[in-house]
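COURSE: Structural Biology Practicum
ASSIGNMENT: Worksheet 4, Part C
STUDENT ID: 0417
INSTRUCTIONS: Below are two proteins. For each, the amino acid sequence is given first, followed by its structure token string. Answer the questions at the end about the second protein only.

PROTEIN I
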Amino acid sequence: MKKVSLLAASVAFALTGCGGSDGDSTSPSPSGVTITGFDGYFNQAVVFDDKNNNGVLDIGSDVIFGLTNDQGQIEISGDVSGALALQTLTPSGAVQTALANHDSSKYAGKYTIDMDHPAQAMAHELVFRAPTSSDVISPITDLVAIEMAKGTDAAPVTEEEAVAIVSTALGGTEEAPIDPYSDFVSGADANAELHKTAQILTESKAANPTTYVEKSEQFAKKADAIVDTLTPAQLADNNLKPVIGDNAAPGDDLDPVVVANNKLVVTASVLETEQGKISILEENGSSSNIVLDITGLFVDKDQNLITPVVTHNIPAASGIVVTLTDNTLTLFASDYINASGDFEVTLTAEDKDLTPEVVGSAIATFNVKIEAANQVPTVDHAEYNVLQAEISNWQLEVGVPFEQTINIVNLFTDKDGDIVSYRTGAMTIPGLTVSPQEGTNPIITISGTPTKATAADASEAFMVGGVDNEGAAAYQEMLIPKVAEGVVPEPDLHPLEGKTWYMLEHGSSNGENEQNYASIWCDSIKFEDGIVLGNVRSIANKTSCSAADTQTENATYEVIDGKLFATFEFVEDGQNLVETFQVEVFEDADDISTGAKTIIHRMKDSTEDSAERYTYFSNKADIEKRINVTSEMSGDERGFNAYLPAEADITYNLGVITLSLTEDISNGDEGTMDANLYFDVPNNDFTCKTVKEFFSGFYFTGEDIDSLQSKEFNSTPIECYTNEENGVNYASVDFDLPALTVNNVYSVIGKVKDSDSEYLEAVKFNIEWTGISNKD
């Protein structure tokens, strides 16, 4: 070997300590250290404590620390009492199979990859050892451990002595010793000659299982001699791995036969490309044929004809058949895959030298994953009996408030996952609810006041369910005692219950389709017996209000502590959604219409600006006036009371909003027609500054014009003018319009800024152009 001083002798030997015939150091290995294994870095090799230092992984007695990563590293904790050791694994090899049987969760499908050849599994199952003082394991440290193990009680070999023997065998001197504990693969201590020596020793240990340990020093010397003959290019060629054979019998000196072999290698790009064609399969599902082209998968400079053999561990019951014909590997389709797990399809080819003699093998492995079918949760009937006995003791009576809870955490089990949420529903007793409808809390509450006794021939029940982490659910009906007769007290109704309310809404849906523009509609709503009723919107609702007689979106409501909450279920973008709003009565609005109320719709538990103000009318005629304005009406007929912002925050003055629609246009107006909204507060100023503070935009819409926005001459939103009359200011918002169609109904919309929609209602009117203007 061309010598390179890796460490001074004093530094190298300072790492060593005393040892006995079993090769153990007097000081155990410290805990919490990172161990690195390599000839090239060993990925997924088993690192263990070889307690009896016999060079064999004794499963069940030796302490296994785990598998190395792709840097050949593993962090271990705990003392090493024997020798630090590393076991390489091959697909379906004897040790790999034994480990998988011992702990399939950790070792099934695991095999070692020498990162000098990252596309293929190692061809040999070998053990390499190191003294406990070392934080590396390699074929070089293995030589040290072997020398120490050759000592006896009468003539022990210390670690220092073993290091010196190995250094000398590898061509080291006292002035330039070989450090057996260096990382010769990469980094500051990288050494191509020592790396090649380790590669030769690995192949030679595999080729001479009966004589390698006995003649390890001689194998080391021969490996060193081979390396000295190699060129730099040959040293750098990881595929060139000469093998030292031994023609001598055990007990005789090494009679070396060197086979100059170029290693049979697996082409990483071919393996990766073909692996990508194997999709994840599903148990109980079906598959189509998976056809892989393995041309060029194996490459060997010493042979042209390479004929791999295919093996696999996919169960026959799966229905998947694996065949290899020439360079085509096929996984034939199955209509019903009756298996699950991680499986391997392995191709093994013989590594031959130029003679050609078989000197080893190369293994390429394709991974096949079949995901297990999800098993639905099941009901634990013993737990059901316990809960049912508890429920059977409840007493229910008409008119008597009731509340009880049960814990269903143990009612449902899932063999292949976890119960992650719970469901309730289908309560048959009027007046009672079961909650929550769905959630992660297993505490179920049954509450309310029964309003109807159970018939003699009837039974009562509710439903509970458990949902697993895959979304599968199981349900169980829980029987509940009958409700006895009682006195039903007259309920204290919420102010909104039991009446039909009418409100104006802007939107693009006309009940049949979506318009390209928004219009003003009269919507009706009624809260009765826990059900939210409404009208089914139609074109007619542009000028008239209809009855609230239909439950849509499974709408329900409940009154909690005097607050009314309405819940709607709907589908959006293919998802089932549920939204709950608080319908809050802010104040009476008799100045708008007798019996009217100012309402705030507020999204429950929302942190955003989700509130919006409405006026609920009880007088249908009053609200219909606002959507039946005509251009020829007088000014008084076109003016309507409205609450408008006052000077102080969240205070209001009663004002009047008047709208007009004329053919006559003012100087500076664009278009052929003109519409205006006038904001007037008697005896108080109301200016454009206030308009622009609260409103984001004003729109004039209709089927022949779509949507036109009020804009300044520079296209900024809201063309507004502050006017003065009798010493009081009022504001007017102007729309410049094209010619309109006679008898068409148009909508006038003033949208409030999101941040102020809780405090001010949008402007909402409809006006018909009759062909006649009235500028009054």
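PROTEIN II
(use this one for the questions)
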Amino acid sequence: MAFDPYGPLPTGTTVLEASAGTGKTWTIAALATRYVAEGLAELSELMLVTFGRAATQELRERTRERLTSAARGLAEPDAVHSIDALVAHLAAADRELRLARLVRALSDFDGATIATTHSFCQRMLDGLGLAGEREPNAAIVEAVDDLTVEVADDLYLQQYAGHAATVPQLSPRTARDVALQAVRDRQARLEPQGAGDTGAGQRVALAEAVRVEVERRKRQRGLRDFDDLLVLLRDVLADPHRGESAAARIRERYRVVLVDEFQDTDPVQWEVLRRAFDGHTTLILIGDPKQAVYAFRGAEVRSYLDAVRLAGTAETLSRNWRTDSGLLQTLDRLYGGAALGHPEIVVHHVEAEHEGSRLPGQPPFRLRQVLRDAPVFGGFPLLPALRTRVADDLATEMVRLLHSDAQLDGRPVLPGDLAVLVRTWKQIPFVCRALDRAGLPWVLGSSTSVFDTPSATDWLHLLQALEQPHQTGRVRLAALTPLLGWTATELAQATDEQVAEVGARLREWSTLFAGAGFAAVFERLAAQTGLEERVLRQSAGERRLTDLRHLAQSLNRAAVDDALGLTALTVWLAQRIADNSLASTADRSRRLDSDAAAIQIVTVHASKGLEFPIVYVPFGWDGACNPRPDSLLLHDASGARVRDIGGDGGPGYAGRRAIHDAEEAGEELRLLYVALTRAQSQVVAWWAPAKQASGSPLHRLLMGRTASEAAPAARVPVPADALATARLSSWASAAGASHELVDPPVSLRWRPVAAAADGLAAARFDRTLDTEWRRSSYSSLTAAVHAGAGAKGVGGAGVGSEAEQPGKDDEP
């Protein structure tokens, strides 16, 4: 049933199923405004919860804006006729009283509880005091990866060093990997169990021992991570003796709880919310299970489905406020009625708010097909060649669009209107190189890790050369980085003396590091080598310089905070290049290299919640994956989370791999749903005849599902070009899309249209200032009185708030 935001306010536990573009955050802010204005709860009695700091900040801003606009609207005498439907609804009764409630809520807004689940747990544990059993002096850390690596190394040495009878069947690096997986996913059961002294058994035994020892050392060192807060509050609420009293104390504070992005919850978070509020407080859970794509972070769409079964009311948000009607119809043809990895996760029809197109004259969905030009492996083109071909065609189509007369909302299409969404960061370089060749401006979203960039490797080569400047090989490698700026030709032609000069400069910087630190080294390097000017002259130089500076700041912070010497700092960087999750979110998230309007390149995971006028999805056909993954995430028959870390030779691997693959296939369908639904007016997608396309989400939807089937086949054979052309053309014709064959590569470069320069003139100030109104202090108001009291020849005592100082007369 469709949810009416202006109908009776929900009570009890209610689940609102959203779809992309239906306004989850808007709905939460509107409901919060209604609960306050209609007197059902004070703002302090509401709790708004979401997942992630950025989402929390957005929810806070949107809620404040909604309260403000509602109060402003109610202040108008004819508010009942407002074009703002929420204002008109609130003005229908008790307008003055509701306005007063909103004004009071705004004055107290800083005290509102709008938080992440982890922050909520911390607040509740603090409020419960001794009942919360939380060490008051414990330090909260974002992650314990460094501690986990430390414990894994210690236990590995303890187990295998000096014990000739015990032969390790896993390397130190593998030991660290399985330890990190086990500790990060501590709610999962580790498999395979009972594998004895095999390689798989040694992995599981070490990982379980690491889990125990990490917990012991955290307690010893007074550390808590975010997951500890959840588990601790869950355990308090589940305690048979005091759990109910603790839950009652939490309920006393909150009468209404609204949870955004509930599809991203995990079983512990859901248990906390259920035990604290279900059946006692108004609990509203809003989420879109079709966008549940964070299983690797511990999110469980099954928790959402459990809540749907438990809730007294389940309704849907059925109006799309983002997408033009034509594009929505095409996407409905592609996804409508499809089950995305679970029979209860189905794409439902939604109504379009935007009739017509904001991009007139252009098809809402363009499907471009790549043909087999030169099959080279089993009848299929090689994957890198196909990725390059598609990326080049993407750049060409962008140039053609920008050079055309196409209008977006009555103005020319600009690069900032375009976004490229990719599945993995490994696909990004193909796009970047193609856009560079076409002269198109682009920026990367912050989703990619700076430790995965070439700039991180450049810094590693330089640090290794600083560590051992006598090693000629390291000196030459450092010279080839943008930090020193030598070309391969210059290095090949360099004499031994010239290379020795580079080594001498590196020794100088190494000495400077020991005396003044990393920041001093970077400043001198930049000044002596002309780093900024030299890098900015290169193609994509602004991007490269941004990454180099970002890494320099991270390296300096690590060197200062952890007192790292040159060798330790080199190891620190090498570890984060090998596993970027060891770094904090702030350290690893790449910064935007420019504020200019440019094409956005974003991973699908990072695009959630965003929208763009025109979206390019170049790799929906690319189903490449590791054929023998060393670790598997899956769920058993009871729904319990399982992590297989035994490797591909472990007992039971094949059966668990089949379950893992089926779950991954469902998540890939949901990821494509996220990508395609970011667009407001147009989607441009590619289909390519790769061998890996058989399991890709776009190929499965286009060629592996009929209108009567809910779930597309897990794998669909890739047909010959002629048959593929016929099928894709037929689908496009029925869906109102454009089917296009990719032309042979052509080289086009973007020529930006120069903006007409307005005539320059000096600014004139011709306002009349009202000097009667001003802001002043009490002291300024009494200044004249004080001046009169101290002046010679003026009788009478002045009155002031400060003690009078005796005058001093230096004149005779």
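ANSWER KEY EXCERPT:
Q1: The first strand starts at residue 13 and ends at 17.
Q2: DSSP finds 30 helices and 22 strands in the chain.
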